[in-house]
């Protein structure tokens, strides 16, 4: 949203269009996450801690992949990086940092869900820690490369990743997160 | 490894706080568990609503951060950028909330949920009020917080995005749960 002289209105309009279309497409896609949730909700109720884990788990991908996409957007705009998939130090370090954060935060989420269920509901279900860790890693393994490719592709095609990547990451992330959670619950 | 440690150092504390806050949101959800099973459209709406409010946190923070780095925002109080950002994004949030409501009601109808007029009105109101209240809170936090973080030579992207998305998450669960409790 560059507010500079005569071109201000045109660029603002472009921003609004980008954000609005990204939101509409993302909402439409993420309704599938909701329908998926209706399908798996009975399975989720079978594991008591899962409902406590769910909000934090859904938020995790927004926090980590959302921050990653915002950092990429800033780096692309300020010409710190080029929109090319090359394993530069910047990209490697971003991937490693995101993996590290995913492992730590998913463990914390799993421990909180376990602790709360044990203390309040007197149910011991240590499986929930493993569910949180494996499902988060699965989701991020898909989501992190997707964030890189999409940000670079958008920037190359003259779209502003700041406008589009936020909705894209969170809504696609919802579908991926619920699928990975379901997969892990079914496997364990 | 300088960038990696900078990202970890700046993000870890705030991400852990965000996890704790989200788990409180989980409590709110658990407290309306029985109502939630009966009210199918709310289960369908939950991930989208959560993500929708969080999106605006990410959009506002990332755009504001880019402009801070490009030195377009010098005085926060008189910044035209902030005014334009609000004026442009708030209507999008409202239209998106209406679209979300319509789509969820349609999906629920397809799944066999019987839609009564009073339910439809209450449902749309719950979604609209949740989005409006949370958007205003998130906008203020992203702008004021982003400016302060930037002044401390830290990256607002790393700190403000987890904060705004966790406010979105916790706020959505609380406002959503309260409205369902009062209205249904």
What descriptive keywords fit this protein?
heterodimer, A: 188 residues, mainly alpha, 5 helices, globular, B: 184 residues, 0% strand
Report what the structure shows.
The complex is a heterodimer of chains A (188) and B (184). Chain A is mainly α and 188 residues long. Chain A has helices at 8-46, 50-77, 89-121, 127-156, 161-187. In chain A, helix 1 runs parallel beside helix 5 and helix 4 packs antiparallel against helix 5. Chain A is globular. With 184 residues, chain B is mainly alpha-helical. In chain B, helix 1 (2-31) packs parallel to helix 6 (156-183). The radius of gyration of chain B is 18 Å and the shape is globular. Chain B starts with a helix and ends with a helix. Chains A and B meet through helix 1, helix 2, helix 3 and helix 5 of A and helix 1, helix 3, helix 4 and helix 6 of B.
SSE map:
The complex is a heterodimer of chains A (188) and B (184).
Chain A: H1 8-46, H2 50-77, H3 89-121, H4 127-156, H5 161-187
Chain B: H1 2-31, H2 33-38, H3 40-69, H4 80-110, H5 117-151, H6 156-183
Helix pairs in contact in B: 1-6, 3-4, 3-5, 3-6, 4-5, 5-6
> Average pLDDT value of chain B?
84
- The DSSP helix count of chain B reads 6
| Number of beta strands of chain A | 0
Rounded mean pLDDT of chain A is: 82
Can you write the helix and strand succession of chain B as a string? HHHHHH
Query: Largest contact between protein chains?
Result: A-B, 70 and 73 residues
**Poorly predicted runs of 5 or more residues of chain A:** 1-6
Give the end-to-end Cα distance of chain A, rounded to a whole number of Å. 47 Å
Termini gap of chain B: 53 Å
Q: Would you list the SSEs of chain A in sequence order as H and E?
A: HHHHH
Cα shape of chain B: globular
Based on helices, strands and strand pairing, what is the structural class of chain A?
Answer: mainly alpha
What structural category arises from helix and sheet content of chain B?
mainly alpha
Rounded to an integer in angstroms, the radius of gyration calculated over CA atoms of chain B is 18 Å
